[in-house]
Backbone:
């Protein structure tokens, strides 16, 4: 089986071909990711209209490159899967319309895939890990701790009540005039800074749940920067280092609580596994922190290669392949979803950290 995957949920135009080798193991035959970062840099963030237009202009040639790298023609594809949500609706429409057209023209199945499920299953693709496991999903739009029981069986144990972690990195970079995308810029500046010189809050530590909050930390960075105006280069580096260490302290506390809950629910698990996925998972300091926590608590850490942590189509092709193997396919009139939670039963908590609203 060879599945063409298409990813257009935000500002990467991506296509990939995933299948199985002779032994039945999943294999990535090709993976092409075209970043739009340069198109959005002047605006300090992703502009939905620009992103959608860029997908229209680039997707055909990206798909052609993915097929060429896989050594295949379009007639060799057994199915097409495209991100159906969550994400920017304009971009989702581009990818889904293209995927449906290819599937209809070739008379092969089409599957609309949850972008978050793609992230959740990447470690199964790369490392073949068994269910159940814990997932820490950290990206520009999502920060969650999820119990992955199996394909389509997800329980959200924690989520952000305000900003996602990737968003907090981007906003901190913007406050300090470091450019876009902000995550790599903040990480690079932090490597030159002293995390102990400036004290910043460490959000949610000690709270009796697994939720996150980063809005207050971002505000604290802004206030410290305002106190030091004009902000010297050394101050920027120290602020970034302090910000990153506060993030790590919060993550450590939240993950430890999730570890305890997992142990209580699965006391016989001999090799408990934490998977970290999403674009922020490429941050080296965060990876080191998670490695330390896992080593201390006797957990296995699985972090996919950085090129598969960010948005990519290989994860979409793989998730689609698993669902196709289970006999599923999407209806021809399936529509994109700007919001598509992994755990459909969990209540939305975004905004619950604001004054006057219950957490």
Residues:
């Amino acid at each position: 089986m060879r599945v063409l995957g298409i990813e257009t949920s935000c500002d990467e135009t991506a296509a990939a071909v995933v299948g199985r080798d002779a032994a039945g193991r999943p294999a990535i035959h090709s993976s092409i990711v075209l970043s739009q970062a340069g198109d959005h840099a002047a605006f300090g963030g992703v502009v939905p209209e620009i992103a959608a237009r860029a997908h229209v202009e680039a997707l055909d040639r990206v798909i052609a490159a993915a097929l060429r790298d896989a050594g295949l023609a379009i007639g060799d594809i057994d199915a097409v899967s495209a991100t159906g949500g969550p994400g920017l609706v304009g971009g989702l429409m581009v990818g889904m319309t293209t995927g449906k057209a290819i599937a209809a023209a070739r008379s092969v199945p089409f599957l609309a895939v949850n972008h978050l499920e793609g992230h959740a299953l990447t470690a199964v693709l790369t490392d073949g890990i068994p269910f159940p496991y814990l997932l820490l999903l950290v990206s520009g739009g999502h920060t969650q701790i999820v119990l992955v029981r199996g394909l389509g069986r997800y329980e959200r144990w924690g989520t952000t009540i305000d900003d996602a972690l990737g968003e907090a990195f981007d906003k901190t970079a913007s406050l300090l005039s470091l450019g876009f995308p902000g995550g790599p810029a903040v990480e690079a500046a932090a490597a030159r800074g002293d995390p102990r010189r400036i004290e910043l809050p460490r959000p949610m530590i000690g709270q009796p749940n697994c939720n996150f909050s980063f809005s207050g930390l971002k505000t604290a960075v802004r206030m410290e920067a305002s106190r030091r105006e004009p902000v010297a280069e050394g101050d920027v580096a120290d602020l970034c280092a302090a910000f990153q260490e506060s993030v790590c302290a919060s993550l450590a506390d939240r993950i430890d609580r999730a570890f305890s809950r997992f142990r209580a629910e699965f006391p016989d698990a001999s090799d408990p596994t934490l998977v970290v996925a999403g674009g922020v998972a490429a941050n080296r300091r965060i990876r080191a922190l998670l490695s330390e926590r896992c080593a201390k608590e006797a957990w296995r850490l699985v972090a996919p290669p950085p090129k598969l942590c960010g948005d990519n189509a290989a994860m979409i092709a793989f998730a689609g392949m698993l669902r196709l193997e289970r006999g599923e396919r999407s209806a021809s009139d399936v529509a994109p979803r700007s919001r598509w939670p992994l755990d459909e039963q969990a209540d939305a908590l975004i905004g619950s950290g604001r004054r006057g609203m219950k957490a």
The beta strands are 2-7, 12-20, 26-35, 79-85, 110-114, 133-138, 143-150, 153-159, 273-277, 300-302.
